[in-house]
């Protein structure tokens, strides 16, 4: 109980400092290191090593080695995805391929003259893409490169477009997702069966509700913040012709998306291409196109440097924040706050329905606090089968809402990697993004509970 209280107090202080415009990286880093220090002093029996790291020989040096472990892990994982996508986006802007894509896409969409309707429908398309692109951060970065500029040119605010993309992985759907595979394993069925027979009936209802709420909340907050909808022209008439990219360049920004979708279980399941590999292939393909069009090897080689500068810029602004948020989240788990919540649930003595709600909310709370849906679900998933057996109920009816809640909690966490990433594009703080995702998320959560209990 003491560990939980300490964690809550530190969390409140950290949140207050961030709201007061203190540098979030520094605040989260200090909060995480403070949690680790308290653990080392008052709970010496707990390990403060990061993952499978080995001790330096000094518990005090282990605290700082923890930061090194987080840096190594995040840069090699989600951080690399974000940096590669940021570098690719910068290069697409440099060669004006982003403008070419927007010019092609915006013409038919301008005819509709309903930017917020397109925003809402865009969420459904993005959520379905998540079935093929299992990485929430990877999908978000792909959408930031491709769909985000289209939405902005159609007239929605950058914050509204960024918030919608922050919800693109609101539910972790499909057999390729790690949490879904674990859920299927605990439910005693194949991942494909779990997806088709259990996830999709709930997901369809949730997607409809969330898309409707995105439509109204985006309009409300844009109006409240004084945003004026202005549908921009497809082509800048004043731009010199030599500065406009060839029309076929419109395919370059979406080329990595095509690669990821084609080489996936949806089309070709014998070959798999991850987001970073697709970004590198996309960049080199664009480089070859530049050579063919401009026939200037020196200029084209210099242009590729924009890719690496873009990667560095993403590390400075986003990945650094992601690392510090991870140190804070890991500190929360190390001190034992999550373990206390878990033990409290086991000793509560609720009925099956109440127990399902409590377990699901615990997953959501953990995801909000840590920013990781995977960590939240993996912490509690193993309890579902034994709890269901005690009540003579099906394990899937408990584990399904728990698994879906992992992604839902992540979408309203200001320390989640995906929220931090989209806030940069939206030119606002992660808290401003969460403010916009909160109402659609709460509507989706309520719908998920209702449909799950009615159907299963």
UniProtKB/TrEMBL annotation:
Principal location class: membrane
UniProt key word Transmembrane helix: yes
TM helices/strands, residue ranges: 25-42, 73-92, 104-124, 130-152, 159-178, 198-218, 248-269, 275-294, 306-329, 349-369, 376-400, 437-455
Bilayer topology annotation: Multi-pass membrane protein
A GO CC term assigned to this protein in UniProt: plasma membrane
Pfam families: DcuC
Subcellular locations according to the entry: Cell membrane
InterPro entries per the UniProt record, alphabetical: C4_dicarb_anaerob_car, C4_dicarb_anaerob_car-like
GO molecular function, one term: C4-dicarboxylate transmembrane transporter activity
Keywords, in A-Z order: Cell membrane, Membrane, Transmembrane, Transmembrane helix, Transport
Recorded superkingdom: Bacteria
Family to which the UniProt record says this protein belongs: Belongs to the DcuC/DcuD transporter (TC 2.A.61) family.
Name of the featured protein: C4-dicarboxylate ABC transporter
């Amino acid at each position: 109980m003491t560990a939980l209280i300490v964690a809550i107090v530190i969390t409140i202080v950290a949140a207050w400092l961030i709201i007061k415009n203190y540098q979030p990286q520094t605040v989260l880093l200090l909060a995480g290191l403070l949690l680790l220090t308290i653990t080392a002093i008052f709970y010496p029996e707990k390990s403060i090593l990061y993952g499978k790291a080995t001790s330096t020989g000094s518990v005090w040096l282990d605290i700082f080695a923890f930061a090194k472990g987080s840096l190594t892990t995040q840069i090699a994982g989600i951080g690399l995805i974000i940096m590669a996508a940021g570098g690719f986006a910068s290069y697409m802007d440099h060669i004006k391929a982003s403008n070419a894509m927007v010019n092609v896409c915006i013409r038919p969409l301008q005819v509709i003259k309903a930017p917020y309707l397109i925003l809402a429908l865009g969420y459904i398309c993005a959520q379905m893409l998540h079935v093929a692109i299992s990485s929430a951060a990877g999908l978000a970065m792909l959408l930031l490169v491709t769909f985000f500029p289209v939405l902005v040119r159609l007239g929605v605010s950058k914050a509204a477009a960024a918030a919608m993309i922050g919800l693109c992985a609101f539910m972790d759907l499909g057999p390729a997702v790690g949490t879904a595979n674990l859920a299927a394993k605990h439910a005693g069925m194949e991942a494909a069966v779990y997806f088709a027979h259990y996830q999709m009936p709930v997901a369809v209802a949730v997607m409809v509700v969330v898309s409707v709420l995105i439509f109204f909340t985006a309009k409300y907050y844009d109006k409240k913040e004084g945003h004026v909808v202005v549908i921009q022209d497809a082509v800048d008439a004043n731009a010199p012709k030599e500065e406009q990219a060839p029309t076929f360049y419109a395919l370059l920004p979406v080329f990595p998306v095509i690669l990821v979708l084609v080489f996936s279980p949806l089309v070709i399941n014998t070959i798999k291409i991850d987001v970073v590999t697709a970004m590198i292939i996309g960049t080199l393909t664009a480089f070859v196109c530049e050579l063919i069009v401009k026939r200037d090897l020196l200029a084209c080689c210099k242009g590729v440097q924009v890719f690496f500068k873009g990667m560095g810029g993403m590390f400075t602004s986003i990945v650094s924040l992601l690392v510090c948020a991870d140190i804070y989240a890991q500190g929360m788990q190390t001190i034992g706050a999550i373990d206390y919540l878990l033990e409290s649930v086991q000793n509560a003595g609720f009925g099956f329905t109440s127990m399902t709600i409590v377990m699901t909310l615990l997953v959501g709370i953990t995801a909000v606090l840590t920013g990781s849906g995977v960590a939240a679900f993996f912490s509690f998933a193993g309890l579902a089968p034994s709890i269901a057996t005690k009540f003579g109920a099906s394990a899937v009816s408990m584990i399904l809402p728990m698994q879906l809640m992992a992604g839902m909690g992540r979408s309203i966490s200001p320390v989640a990697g995906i929220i931090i990433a989209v806030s940069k594009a939206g030119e606002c703080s992660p808290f401003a993004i969460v403010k916009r995702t909160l109402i659609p998320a709460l509507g989706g959560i309520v719908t998920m509970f209702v449909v799950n209990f009615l159907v299963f």
